């Protein structure tokens, strides 16, 4: 049962995202100015980039209960999937995905609202849950089918 003082899930997600930067004050400043804030990948998560529409289809295939955060930019027609920082070579053969190296900067809006056409298709929920790369690869792979046993 939720208490009166419990944070809404969106705020929890935003708090989690802020925990992924060493400069939360600067991030708050940028967001207050309606600007995207830089988040460096590697320590907390890795990033896989993909075209937007295939990403939406992959999200449906994976299912909302198994999704981690997915950021989208409608103007750039791109989506970015947050994956475990321990990501290996699981996605190397998936042509539609570009896995970014640790240290790559992802410019993020707040979890609470869009900035400049960029927003969260699947918001961070505050738990730190990230998309399983095996599920992502299967959703983008030939036929994009996931078995009930997956994930």
Tell me about this structure.
- The protein contains 4 helices and 7 strands, in the order ααββαβββββα.
- It has 151 residues and is α+β, with helices and mostly antiparallel strands.
- It has helices spanning 9-18, 24-32, 52-62, 133-140; strands spanning 37-40, 46-51, 70-73, 78-83, 98-100, 105-108, 118-122.
Q: What is the CA-atom radius of gyration, in angstroms?
A: 15 Å
| Cα distance spanning the termini | 28 Å
Form type: globular
Instruction: Report helical residue fraction.
Output: 25-40%
Instruction: State the helix count.
Output: 4
Low-confidence stretches: 1-6, 144-151
Q: Based on DSSP secondary structure assignment, what is the total number of beta strands?
A: 7
Beta-strand residue percentage: 15-25%
Order of helices and strands: HHEEHEEEEEH
Largest sheet: 5 strands, antiparallel
In which order are the strands of the major sheet placed?
5-2-4-3-7
- Average predicted local confidence, pLDDT: 89
The computed structural class is alpha+beta
């Amino acid at each position: 049962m939720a208490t009166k003082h419990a944070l809404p899930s969106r705020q929890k997600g935003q708090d989690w995202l802020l925990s992924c930067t060493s400069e939360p004050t600067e991030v708050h400043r940028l967001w207050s100015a309606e600007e995207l804030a830089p988040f460096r990948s590697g320590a907390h998560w890795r990033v896989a980039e993909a075209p937007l529409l295939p990403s939406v289809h992959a999200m449906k295939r994976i299912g909302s209960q198994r999704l981690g955060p997915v950021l989208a930019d409608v103007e750039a027609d791109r989506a970015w999937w947050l994956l475990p920082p321990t990501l290996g070579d699981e996605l190397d053969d998936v042509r539609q995905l570009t896995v970014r190296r640790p240290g790559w900067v992802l410019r993020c809006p707040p979890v609470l609202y869009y900035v400049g056409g960029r927003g969260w298709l699947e918001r961070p929920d505050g738990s730190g849950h990230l998309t399983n790369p095996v599920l992502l690869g299967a959703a983008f792979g030939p036929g994009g089918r996931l078995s009930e046993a997956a994930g």
